[in-house]
Automatic annotation (TrEMBL), chains A, B:
Lineage per the UniProt record: Bacteria, Bacillati, Actinomycetota, Actinomycetes, Streptosporangiales
Coiled coil feature spans: none
UniProt GO MF annotations: DNA-binding transcription factor activity
Pfam families: Rrf2 (PF02082)
Identification of the protein by name: Rrf2 family protein
Length: 159, 159
DNA sequence: GCCTCGGTACTCGGATAAATCTTGTCCGAGTTGAAAAGG
DNA sequence: CCTTTTCAACTCGGACAAGATTTATCCGAGTACCGAGGC
């Protein structure tokens, strides 16, 4: 159960977009160069963020990506769901209803294994939903105040 | 981020081993036939459970798998870790230390994105670790008391 | 000097291959149990 | 009838392919900016 690497890229890119601010659009090439990532593939992740409504995309010269909302309104869950999709990691295939183990009763109760796994995923999602990009920004500012300054300067200097 | 299907199989199989009890060893073929699963592949999952110490395996005629501990001592996390591995789903590759975005400071603070994601996974793991096979058994007994009876009967009749 | 028009460069967006992981299958090593032979 | 020996069947265990998902790449459609030409 390895999470897609694009999630890490998307989170860091959202953070960078937050540093730059919503006024200026940052093209994929700049976001990719900042961490030496493959630009074409990062673009794919940013497209997913755009489809999910996390970022706006504007084509043409001077175009690129901007945060669609304030960092306070973007949770980590928003980003993860945008990249990984909405469906749960554990998917109950109802094996209990196949073979000799099947219970022929018509009103089948919900699969308790599924319920237990789902409870764990809900806890995971809740923890992700409780953290916003803005809170991440605040934590970074406190731990390493020079990071946002450097990022803003670099992106301002990169056309 | 789809979880391996083997997790579902392993959980249901552990439940069935719990119904049968630790006295009798159940071979892979019986566990697979109960849900019409591919026996050879289910065997692979059971091997993983054996390596993790969740079940005992005994070869030869009359052999098979038994729970290695009481159902109260087996958590859902034990089973999931046995199948999926111990490493986290989100793996920080430290992209922040590559390219122009790298902070040249020697004492690098921990990656806050990684910390945030890890917090969510810890919540997930905690929820899984809080539920045991025995509790699942109790829930099934209450929701559908005939299920354990049917299972015991079927496995007793299957050599 | 101001407006209009055309071109060019730049951006995203989706369609298209390579790599890696999951899923599925197979056969061999080892062990047990039973049956058969001997005492 | 009891003991010993041999055999055969059954079990797990790891090595070996097929399919699916992730990763990576490319080129085309569309847009905004910039310059040139005309009014």
């Amino acid at each position: 159960m390895r999470m897609a690497e694009g999630v890490e890229w998307a989170l860091h890119s959202c953070l960078n977009l937050a540093w730059v601010g919503p006024e200026r659009a940052v093209p994929t090439a700049a976001l990719a160069a900042f961490y030496e990532l493959p630009a074409a593939y990062l673009n794919k992740q940013l497209q997913a963020l755009a489809r999910a409504g996390v970022v706006y995309s504007t084509p043409g010269p001077g175009g690129g990506f901007r945060l669609a909302r304030d960092p306070e309104q973007i949770t980590l869950l928003d980003v993860v769901v945008a990249i990984e999709g909405r469906e749960d990691a554990f998917q109950c295939t109802e094996i209990r209803q196949r073979g000799p183990g099947a219970t022929p009763d018509a009103p089948t109760a919900p699969c308790l294994v599924d319920q237990a796994m789902r409870r764990a995923e809900i806890a995971w999602r809740a923890e992700l939903a409780s953290q916003t990009i803005a809170e991440l920004q605040a934590a970074v500012r406190q731990a390493a105040p020079e990071v946002p300054v450097r990022a803003r300067q670099w992106f301002a200097a990169t056309p």
